[in-house]
Amino acid sequence: MNEVRRMSVQSIVTEGGEELVILSRRAYDALLARAGDEDAEDRMTARLAEEHVTARAAGTVTLAPDWLTAAVLAGESPLGAARRQGGLDLADLAARAGIAADALAAMEQGRRTGTDAEIEAVAQACGVDAALLLDRDFAPAADQVTAPPADKPRRESARPR
């Protein structure tokens, strides 16, 4: 969800010299959600669900493979799932992708958002389609959804609250 990085930002400078930034409601909600605002996160989730339904109807949804769908439903990181799919440990992937191991670990744990170039390098090193890792709003195919085990609750959010 690199909503903030992809958004178009406009600014206005007041007579007093203060710069004001104008954001779309979507970008504003994304910022609030990242800051832990649960109402904003709910609005973003509803918006994403609505966009998904529209995209499904138009046939433009990127469907995730079973290994990625299962990992996300189990609360795992898509980057970690890609690393395991590629048969790599953290140090090997970091070396192949040209990313420091601690930075890669932070990306997998959701403590750091990787740049598009970093995520593309990870995908290439793992031998997976970069679009799967760059599409923060991927949607599993209905016939590929696997319920999480009863003893393992689904992760609500990777964001700290």
What's the CATH architecture of the largest domain?
A: Orthogonal Bundle
What's the number of extended β-strand segments?
4
What distance lies between the first and last C-alpha atoms, to the nearest angstrom?
17 Å
Q: Name the shape in a single word.
A: globular
Uncertain stretches: 1-6, 139-161
Major β-sheet annotation: 2 strands, antiparallel
Number of domains: 2
CATH superfamily of the largest domain: lambda repressor-like DNA-binding domains
Strand fraction equals 5-15%
- Which value, in Å, is the CA radius of gyration? 18 Å
Total of helices = 9
User: What structural class is derived from the secondary structure elements?
Assistant: mainly alpha
